[in-house]
Fold VOC family protein.
Amino acid sequence: MTEAAIRRTPGTPCWVSLMVHGLTATEEFYHALFGWEFTPGPQQLGPYVRGLLDGREIAGIGQLPPDRHLPIAWMTYLATDDADKTAETIRSCGGTVGVGPLDAAEAGRMAIAADPAGAVFGIWQAAAHTGTAVAGAHGTPVWNELITRETSAVGKFYEALFGYDVEATVSADFDFLTLRLEGRPVASLHGLGRALDRDRGAHWMTHFEVADADAAARLVTELGGQVIRRPREGATGRLATVADPEGAVFTIVQSDPVV
């Protein structure tokens, strides 16, 4: 595969990962929910596996050291051509870099950062590992949305970072931005104001495609997870907000057919 064929436009969500305390139990949950199989990945930050569908990489799950009590949350990675340069830009624009940049074996170079509102995200400079290899099928990440208090200032941060074209939904009671690259929507920012959960704060939310949102929500509960917002109709399909047994929150969506 050529370099041009695998390059993702900088700023495009390209991977999602999760750090948990019980790696084996978490593998069992996502295997039952999404059908993922697992293979070992780079171990720089401890035990780590990649979830696969039909042998193709979907997402990563790592194990936290027993003494680390970090929030359990799915993390969105944004593609970059130069992790070190992007890390410098993050700092100069008011964000923070908590991990890296560092090499993940031959897979690529990464850093973990937070935007000025505190939402944690990753940046990924691809080498052997280019990111999620399947889109649209059951169990694949199909959208990433930043949930934050207000979008104006933090929208300028991401715009400065990756040069997104920012499209605002103009409404007195709805604070929403769509981030576009090369004319294509790639992510969104949703400002909740005072409704933002204080315990979680600003965060990126991963949306995973499912064949049946109602059935998947029931299965989450049967597997020891929790339904936070019951299945409902959204702008792009039927969706529900759920959490896995360790409390990692994500959205399941049964997308409307493209006509």
